[in-house]
Write a structure and sequence with these properties.
Length: 507
């Protein structure tokens, strides 16, 4: 691709960044990096009624954690700044005025009450009210298409509230191009005349978005499919301004794990998984929402999972580094249909990434958990513990529950397992076993295994009669890695102590 690729992620700072938004940012990032382009962050805060003060910083922090930071944006390489639309509001009126002068837009003075009355009147007659070509010049609507220039100026001078609407052309067939969906055919007579400039002096998304994309030299607009209905208007706006249009790509929705529709926070709350990358506390309401980071997910596993929601690499490969994703990503392989989110598959990705990490890395990540439980140990020992338990872990947070017996004696014994495995004769068998262990001079895995198994064989009893109570004694439950690994890890003295503790507690 020879042109200078510039893409933008343009969220509204109204709350936490949904994973659907993160995926949009990711696809923009991957496309930019593949083509040696620029990934721009723009904050679209024209709707001040929904603005939340801490949301912008949350967006920046989320992109950083996901390892997809923006190249250009608020406070960073401000080549085309400012990057907050609220700081650019003075320039939008100029472009609204330009459209008015060219005849592509008009003033509309209709009040909300008047428009509501039109809607109700249409509904009573089984129709839908649309403000467009079929009624805008018939005199029932109050706009500059039916008023004289003098009347318009009188209303403006008198302080009457107005909006600026786009004048959609009549009787035209638009052929639109989308990088994901191909050709789209739209009849302009079905479109309404959207408001471009509001009565509060702020532009709507439609005007601000087009003006900013042009001034920031955006080459490709990659955004969610919820903006697909706006594509005809945006295409017409580029024509009206006589600007070259960027290429558009509309991404399909991320769908609920069960049922139909778009994935929402409510789905996460109901099924027990986060829908935001980071934990978020809403400054206005005080509500706290869970985040993937705080739930123990690795950012690279999270990003890998997101990349495959709505994009197919064309191979059976599922695990990708960010560098591999950058090389492989192609808009041509982005799906037109929605992608169903799977909490279980998301956990699977995290488990795969956990297994790929070295024991040294995992031991370092395990340290804070050990400190929380007032446990200290040398690095080599912790690495050995991690090597024995990591295959059964999905998160680093699972490590303590899987390995506490390596660091401290069990304080309780699984009740169900105890009733099943600890019989009347078990106590005396365990006492004999203590004698066998005491006699092992070199307490290695090989020696312990040979002597204990030899003793069990000589007594002509089933291995389960000894090994299951032994596991219960050492671990407190019937779980954990190889018993002889556990015994030699905790040492001969601790092994004997734990067996005696179990005898006293269970016999």
């Amino acid at each position: 691709m020879s042109e200078n690729v510039r893409v933008r992620f343009a969220p509204s700072p109204t709350g936490a960044l949904h994973i659907g938004g993160v995926r949009t940012a990711l696809f923009n990032y991957l496309f930019a990096k593949k083509h040696n382009g620029t990934f721009v962050l723009r904050i679209e805060d024209t709707d001040q009624t929904r603005y939340v003060a801490n949301a912008e910083q949350y967006i920046v922090d989320a992109l950083e954690w996901c390892n997809i930071p923006f190249d250009e944006g608020p406070g960073k390489n401000e080549k085309f700044g400012p990057y907050r639309q609220s700081e650019r509001k003075d320039l939008y009126k100029k472009y609204a005025d330009e459209l008015l002068e060219k005849g592509w837009a008009y003033y509309a003075f209709d009040t909300s009450e008047e428009l509501d009355a039109h809607r109700k009147d249409h509904e009573a007659n089984g129709k839908t009210f649309i403000y467009n070509w079929h009624n805008r010049e018939k005199g029932r609507l109050v706009n500059s298409l039916v008023l004289s220039e003098e009347e318009v100026q009188q209303k403006i001078s008198a302080g009457e509230k107005y909006v600026v609407r786009f004048k959609t052309p009549q009787d035209e067939t638009l052929i639109l191009e989308d990088e994901v969906r191909g050709k789209i055919k739209i009849e302009t007579n079905t479109l309404d005349d959207k408001v471009l400039f509001k009565s509060d002096g702020m532009p709507t998304y439609h005007l601000a978005n087009i003006v900013d994309d042009h001034l920031m030299e955006i080459s490709h607009v990659i955004r969610g499919e919820e903006w697909l209905p706006s594509l005809p208007l945006h295409t017409l706006l580029y024509r009206a301004f006589e600007w070259e249009s960027p290429k558009f790509a509309h991404l399909s929705l991320i769908l609920k794990p069960v049922g139909k529709g778009k994935l929402s926070k409510r789905d996460g709350d109901k099924l027990g998984f986060p829908v935001f990358p980071l934990e978020y506390t809403n400054e206005k309401t005080g509500d706290v929402s869970r985040g993937y980071k705080e739930d123990g997910y690795f950012s690279d596993a999270f990003i890998n999972m997101l990349s495959l929601l709505g994009w197919n690499p064309g191979t059976e490969q599922e695990l990708f580094t960010l560098e591999e994703l950058t090389k492989t990503f192609d808009l041509a392989r982005v799906s037109k249909s929605g992608a169903k989110f799977s909490p279980d598959k998301t956990k699977w990705f995290n488990q795969q990434y956990l297994q790929q990490k070295t024991n040294e890395e995992l031991a370092t990540l395990f340290l804070p958990l050990l400190e929380e439980n007032n446990v200290s140990s040398d690095a080599i020992y912790i690495q050995k513990v991690v090597s024995l338990i990591k295959e059964r872990a999905v998160f680093v947070n699972d490590f303590w529950g899987l390995s506490s017996f390596f660091f401290e004696d069990p304080t309780a014994y699984d009740e169900k397992a105890s009733k099943k495995q600890w019989k009347e004769t078990t106590g005396s068998l365990m006492e004999e076993l203590v004698s066998v262990i005491e006699a092992i001079e070199d307490f290695s895995i090989e020696n312990a295994q040979t002597d204990i198994k030899g003793w069990i064989t000589s007594k002509e009893i089933g291995f389960g009669k000894v090994m299951q109570p032994l596991r219960l004694s050492l671990v407190g439950k019937l779980a954990g890695p190889d018993l002889f690994e556990i015994m030699t890890m905790i040492g001969k003295e601790a092994t004997i102590k734990r067996i005696k503790n179990a005898i006293a507690a269970l016999s």
